[in-house]
């Protein structure tokens, strides 16, 4: 293997970091065109290096893995941690998603954020995120992975709260940051256990040590480590019970939602579980927990998404649900299927968020689908590209989402664990719900009578700052294309549409790399990941022993379920538009439960946040801080002043006074001696 790719590996994270430094320090004084050029160049070059790595590792005779030179980072008695980047086939796929989709979203952002204040700051934050995400993916140790893990959390906080003058956005950023710290605490505990048992955090030392001890199957310490890692993954990938931050994160600009909360950062938890498959394969309990959390999150979030009216929040709950599918795949041991869905999800969900941003741009900031409709002919490119994303996420063949989602359901059903048959059914029902709420979004946004004339008319003309009740601040300036559109509705510029077209194509054909043998394919992505997961006790090994007939039957059931979801959405929101409102009126309790998101946020606020605040303010602040800490300081000061006063009164310079004190002291000594002697005689 030529050493050139390994030496170039450093540039993948360093180039975005250079973009962050340039725009972060000089961007305020630079023209926007130069800020854009710096940000795009510093993401395009890593994408190019990633493509070169892909071709290099796919060449005949190429090694399955290579790494940069290893440098000692921390080395003390009984513990070592090295600083090195490594690439294998799993890393290569993640790099393709992070750098490729990330670059497209950077291009889109140039148009979407064109009139925003803090333009330079936004791109500095985006580049900072790309730096930390690259570190996370390339890390060759738990410690370095944790650096990237915390870094993307910081960048997410900055980007979610980009509109920091908006209270809801600032609160959403803080909420994301705090909730993720809960998961990070679990990650830290897992690393402490790893150090205690292995004396190292390096992948090259921990995983081989586990593989060499088959007698550790089901070992308690491995289960404890795995469960703590699950807690960390649940926080980063927004799984129950730590999913609550991601829907609120939609307060950030739409490109942030596409990049961080659909395509890259939220998949870090799935990537970490797949990376640690050697550890998880030794803990059936931990795998079962992962699978159950994933299935529960998938159906729970899908049910909430069915009644949301904010177009971005529908996609947000959809993201949580799709991440649940990936978790479920990893839990049943089908790591390759989970990564396959991660890739296709990056395509169609990135597309859906960017297309939603184009809709918002067309309506000058409106995000409520009740104020949309009839946009199919007014913004046709956005319509057709978003349609590709809708059909892909719904699981319609031959779109990308069909192959990846169907693979997860098949692997789950084929697992020898009888519990996983129930999880398959939950996943199947979730697929139908996904189809329903995505086509609900499709019909309400693009079909029917326009419901936006008055809204658009109010925002047509002079530059405006349009802010809906739940959304970001958009700035729209009139131009010739906009003026030509009736009521101010206008298609997005091509710098925004180009990424939509590319992602739409990938949403159509991206799943063809995973066509299973039962459908005439070779499941190339599974074979590509074989060097990574070959030694794991994965579900694929079990599933491949089943006949193709079962897979075809399950695929047919899945397609029929998706078609049923489409038909119900068509009936309720196109053929009989008032039918959905009538159903909601007849089932007010159920509708209120879903519309209020099961009151989970209220439960957390009243039973977790409020008691914690009462404890911190009532006990820690009042008693501990003010009473003990501050009180002990004041008491020490008063004691010192008291001793000083007593001592000062004795040092008068008067010889007669000194003689008196000497006599008093001598009398006290004699009295103590007499008392002590009498006590000894008595005893």
Textual characterization of the structure:
The structure is a single chain. It contains 30 helices and six strands. It has 683 residues and is mainly alpha-helical. The protein starts with a helix and ends with a helix.
Brief characterization of the structure:
This protein has 683 residues and is mostly helical. It has helices at residues 4-8, 11-26, 32-58, 89-112, 119-138, 142-160, 167-198, 203-211, 220-236, 245-248, 254-263, 268-275, 277-280, 284-305, 311-331, 335-362, 380-394, 400-414, 419-446, 453-458, 480-484, 494-509, 524-528, 530-533, 539-543, 548-575, 579-586, 588-595, 600-650, 655-682, and strands at 66-67, 71-76, 79-83, 86-87, 464-467, 473-476.
Cα shape: globular
Oligomer: single chain
Q: Which structural class should the secondary elements be placed in?
A: mainly alpha
- Tally of alpha and pi helices: 30
Distance between the termini: 91 Å
- Estimate what percentage of residues fall within beta strands: under 5%
**Major sheet summary line:** 2 strands, antiparallel
Mean pLDDT: 87
User: What strand order characterises the main sheet?
Assistant: 1-4
Query: Taking Cα atoms only, what radius of gyration do you get, to the nearest Å?
Result: 31 Å
Q: Roughly what percent helix?
A: over 70%
């Amino acid at each position: 293997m030529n050493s050139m790719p390994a030496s170039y590996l450093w540039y993948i994270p360093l180039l975005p970091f250079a973009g962050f430094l340039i725009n972060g320090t000089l961007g305020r004084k630079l023209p926007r065109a130069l800020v854009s050029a710096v940000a795009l160049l510093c993401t395009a070059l890593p994408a190019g290096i990633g493509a070169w790595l892909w071709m290099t590792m796919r060449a005949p005779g190429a090694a399955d893995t290579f790494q940069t030179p290893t440098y000692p980072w921390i080395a003390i008695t009984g513990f070592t941690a090295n600083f090195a980047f490594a690439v294998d086939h799993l890393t290569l796929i993640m790099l393709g998603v992070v750098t490729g989709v990330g670059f497209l979203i950077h291009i889109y952002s140039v148009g979407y954020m064109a009139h925003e204040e803090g333009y330079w700051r936004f791109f500095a934050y985006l580049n900072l995120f790309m730096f930390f995400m690259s570190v996370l993916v390339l890390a060759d140790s738990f410690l370095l992975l944790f650096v990237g893990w915390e870094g993307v959390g910081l960048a997410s906080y900055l980007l979610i709260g980009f509109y920091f003058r908006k209270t809801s956005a600032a609160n959403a950023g803080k909420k994301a940051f705090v909730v993720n710290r809960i998961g990070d605490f679990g990650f830290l505990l897992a690393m402490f256990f790893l150090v205690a048992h292995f004396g190292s955090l390096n992948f090259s030392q921990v995983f081989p040590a586990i593989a060499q001890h088959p007698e550790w199957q089901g070992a308690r310490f491995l289960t404890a480590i795995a469960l703590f890692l699950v807690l960390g993954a649940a926080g980063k990938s927004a799984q129950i019970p730590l999913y609550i931050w991601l829907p609120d994160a939609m307060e950030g600009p739409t490109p942030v939602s596409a990049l961080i909360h659909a395509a890259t950062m939220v998949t870090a938890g799935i990537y970490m579980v797949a990376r640690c498959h050697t550890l998880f394969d030794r803990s059936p309990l931990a795998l079962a927990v992962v699978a159950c959390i994933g299935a529960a999150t998938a159906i729970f979030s899908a049910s909430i998404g069915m009644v949301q009216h904010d177009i971005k929040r529908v996609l947000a709950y959809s993201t949580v649900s799709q991440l649940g599918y990936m978790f479920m795949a990893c839990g049943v041991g089908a790591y390759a299927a989970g990564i396959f869905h991660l890739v296709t999800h990056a395509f169609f969900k990135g597309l859906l968020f960017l297309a939603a941003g184009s809709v918002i741009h067309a309506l000058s900031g409106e995000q409520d689908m009740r104020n949309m409709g009839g946009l199919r002919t007014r913004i046709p490119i956005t319509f057709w590209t978003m349609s590709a994303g809708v059909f892909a996420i719904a699981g319609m063949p031959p779109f990308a989402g069909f192959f990846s989602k169907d693979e997860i359901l098949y692997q789950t059903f084929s697992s020898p664990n009888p519990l996983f048959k129930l999880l398959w059914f939950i996943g199947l029902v979730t697929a139908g719900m996904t189809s329903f709420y995505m086509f609900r979004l499709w019909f309400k946004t693009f079909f029917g009578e326009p419901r936006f004339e008055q809204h658009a008319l109010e925002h047509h003309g002079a530059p405006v700052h349009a802010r809906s009740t739940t959304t970001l601040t958009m700035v729209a300036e009139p131009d010739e294309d906009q003026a030509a559109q009736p009521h101010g509705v206008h298609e997005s510029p091509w710098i925004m549409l180009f990424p939509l077209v590319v992602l739409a194509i990938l949403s159509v054909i991206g799943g063809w790399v995973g066509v299973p043998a039962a459908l005439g394919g070779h499941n190339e992505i599974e074979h590509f990941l074989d060097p990574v997961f070959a030694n794991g006790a994965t579900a694929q090994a079990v599933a491949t022993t089943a006949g193709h007939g079962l897979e075809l039957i399950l695929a047919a059931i899945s397609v029929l379920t998706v078609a049923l979801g489409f038909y119900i959405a068509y009936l309720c929101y196109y053929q009989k538009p008032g039918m959905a409102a009538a159903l909601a009126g007849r089932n007010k309790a159920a509708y209120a439960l879903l519309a209020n998101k099961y009151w989970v946020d209220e439960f957390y606020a009243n039973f977790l946040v409020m008691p914690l605040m009462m404890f911190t303010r009532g006990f820690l602040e009042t008693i501990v801080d003010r009473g003990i800490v501050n009180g002990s300081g004041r008491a020490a000061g008063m004691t010192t002043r008291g001793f000083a006063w007593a001592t000062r009164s004795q040092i008068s310079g008067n010889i007669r006074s000194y003689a008196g004190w000497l006599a008093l002291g001598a009398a006290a000594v004699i009295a103590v001696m007499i008392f002590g002697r009498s006590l000894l005689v008595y005893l």
